Amino acid sequence: MAKKVSKAKDKTLAVFEDYQRTFGTVYGKRVLWHLMKMHGFMEHSHVAGDSHSTAFNDGGRNVINNILKKMKVDIPTYIKMLDNYDPEEEYNVLDQ
What we know:
Blueprint: H1 2-23, H2 26-38, H3 51-70, H4 75-83, H5 87-95
C-alpha cells in the first residue's frame, strides 16, 4: 500500500513539474496569456440573470486558476505582472 501511495505522489509531482516546465517557457507564457484572455480570467464571470453563463465563465476561469496553482504561482503577483505584459513584444523577440 505504501508503495502505491509513493508512486501516486511521484506521478503528481511529475505533473506539477511538467506544468512548470511547459508554462515557464516563453512559448508557454504566451499560451497561458492567450488562455487567460480566451477564458476571461481578468474579467468578472457573473452574467446578470443567467446562472448557466455565469457557471460556464467560472469553469473557464477555474482552468486558469488550476494551471497557476500547479505552477505554484502567487496569483496576485502574477496578475500585477500581466499588467505590464505585452505578448507582441515576445513575438518580436522570438522572430530575431
